[in-house]
Write a structure and sequence with these properties.
The structure is a single chain. With 359 residues, this protein is α+β, with helices and mostly antiparallel strands. The protein has 2 domains: 229 residues, Aminopeptidase (3-Layer(aba) Sandwich); 100 residues, Beta Barrel (OB fold (Dihydrolipoamide Acetyltransferase, E2P)). The chain is built from 7 helices and 20 strands. β8, α4 and β9 form a beta-alpha-beta unit. Bound molecules: zinc ion. The site of zinc ion (ZN) has 4 residues, from loops.
């Protein structure tokens, strides 16, 4: 599909003019270390000879989320980006301080993804948000931001976006993740503010912190390539799943008792109302309680910590997803491309003990 792109001024990033046909590595200075040395976000800009859309790809806004870094780096390494037209702005690591400090947050203890669009005279986080928003987001026509679950949890891959906006909807479907969760995102999130500023943006939520997971890497690279193909920036047909499922509602299932869990389902599995999802045992192996599914749905996310206290979130359940795109040959709720999805499920559950529930 070809989208009409308004004529825009020549692209200038970090004060550098990007010429058509050029690939440039640039550094966006946004702060200084305690020793007064500049701290910068590394950015690669790939501009095709022909004009076309500008798309940004961002990772590691949360400093402990590495799948996005892996996906974007893999794209840049793969020689699969001979762009036909347009420009890609690739930012594998946005939160440079968070990554260096082994933390989701910035040194001022703020969550960067609640600080957009930022301010040039605000806090450290607000200044980084402002730099990224002005230099990357506002210079793009659309974008994909890569995330993982928060620490101690994992997410089955899903694209999230505000589907009320038809351009966001088109972008979400073009990625081809299998599951699309509808929602505007939290206040101050980059994707929410980008959409408000007229730059359609979606996020991929996939996997867990501190890992570059092979199945997620494969799905993320394929999704980014699909987007570039969809907007006619790359040659070739998008590799789309036979069905995509729309999730309008999700619910958290929380622990009622403290204890040690044995799981009976893995991320991405379909569950029925009343099904036993986990058994909670005490440290001596005495059963305390069982965790049941309140509704039919798909396990979109779950804790990877076997120990819980009352109130801890255990499962994030997507309630009765509806088909968005559906191939008649696809089984009900069976996720797209079963082979990749099966592999992802296996990888995501490697450090989780999943066994059959006792009858
Ligand atoms: Zn995140």
């Amino acid at each position: 599909m070809t989208t009409t792109i308004p004529k825009r001024k020549p692209l200038v990033i970090a004060g550098q003019k990007i010429r058509r046909g050029e690939t440039r590595d640039l550094f966006l200075n946004f702060s200084e270390s305690f020793t007064g040395i500049s701290v910068a976000v590394p950015v690669r800009v790939i501009a095709a000879k022909r004009p076309g859309p500008t798309v940004f790809l961002t990772g590691t806004i949360h400093g402990d989320e590495l799948n996005g870094l892996g996906i974007i780096r893999s794209l840049l390494m793969s020689n699969t980006l001979p762009l036909k037209r347009g420009t890609v702005i690739a930012v594998p690591v946005v939160n440079v301080f968070g990554l260096e400090n082994v933390s989701r947050y910035l040194p001022d203890r703020r969550d960067l993804n609640r600080c957009f669009p930022g301010s040039p005279t605000g806090s450290l986080s607000a200044r980084l948000a402002d730099t990224i928003f002005r230099e990357v987001v506002l210079k793009s026509d659309f974008g994909v931001d890569f995330h993982t679950a928060a620490i101690g949890r994992t997410n089955f891959p899903n694209i999230r976006g505000d589907l009320k906006d038809p351009k966001v909807r088109e972008l979400a479907q073009a990625f081809g993740s299998g599951f699309i969760v509808n929602g505007r995102g939290p206040a101050g999130s980059m994707r929410g503010e980008a959409v408000r500023a007229g730059v359609p943006t979606v996020i991929l939520e996939a996997g867990e912190t501190w890992k570059i997971e092979p199945g997620i890497l494969e799905l993320g690279v394929r999704g980014a390539l699909n987007v570039l193909k969809h907007y006619d920036m790359l040659a070739g047909e998008p590799d789309l799943p036979p069905s995509q499922w729309l999730v309008e509602k999700t619910t958290w299932i929380r622990a009622q008792r403290g204890g040690v869990l044995t799981y009976h389902v893995a991320p991405g599995e379909q569950v029925n109302k009343g099904q036993i999802l986990a058994t909670n045992l005490d440290v001596f192996g005495q059963e305390l309680n069982r965790i049941h599914a309140p509704r039919k749905g798909i396990v979109m996310g779950m804790t990877t910590m076997p120990v819980v206290k009352p109130g801890d979130a255990i499962f994030h359940l997507a309630i009765t997803p509806k088909t968005l795109v559906h191939d008649a040959s696809a089984k009900e709720l069976s996720p797209a491309d079963p082979q990749l999805m099966r592999r992802i499920r296996r990888h995501l559950a490697t450090n989780i003990q999943v066994s059959k529930a006792a009858v």
